[in-house]
Amino acid sequence: MGIALVNIAIIALVFTSIWPFPSGEFKVELPNSNDVSWSYSDGIVHVLAPYTIDNGWIYDVDDLEVSYSVTNQTGKVLAAETIPIGVVPAGEVKNDEIDFTFNLTRFYNEGGMGMIFRDDSLHFEVSVSCMYTMKLIKFEATYETEVLWDALIRGYGVTNLTYTPAGATLEYYIETSAILAPLGSVPATISVYDGNGDPLLYPPVTQSVRLGTNSSGVMTFTPTAPSVPPTSIEVRVQLLGFQFVMRWP
Q1: What is the structure's pLDDT at 190?
Q2: 3-state DSSP assignment of residue 16
Q3: What is the pTM of this model?
Q4: CA 86 centroid distance within chain
């Protein structure tokens, strides 16, 4: 009878140790796109992504570690870290956040274009490792989620061009992500060329562009050449260290 009672106790211990994981009593909730906050300064993106660990069972969780890796659609690793958390007592919820930065200017200089000029997504892979049931059971699991990313420079173009040898007026727009709104208005360097690559404006001029919205501007200049209106123009813009080209027509 004693052996039977011990066996029953062992079975009960094993059951109560394993049960919380498939039943959802122990669970990890990862952030979605609405939960994540972003900020941008001097080419660096700062990301705060909250997550929750819910230990809803009867045993403490010990030696808890959270490891994460964040990549974009091209597989570029933007951040990776292991966070030691320690103990989450039985019945408690641990609220924390994944806090990291990545250098978007370096990504751009290495040939990456997607996050600057095209929408992207960040793939979060989060691994959880802990000891359970008085450190008798080790639990490991991996969770994944996708968080949408809006391109920094979302659109741009020339809307109208009035051209004479004596003077030209260029109307354009530049639409940027809301993440840039706290930066206010910043300078953009603008150069104008004809369809053959010959400069129509020298030296380049600086225009103020309001970030975080669809900003429109008007630029008036005296063409350096030619006297005949060009059939097409190329407007080269440098903004926040990124370069792009607007064409007309």
Answers
A1: 96
A2: helix
A3: 0.80
A4: 29
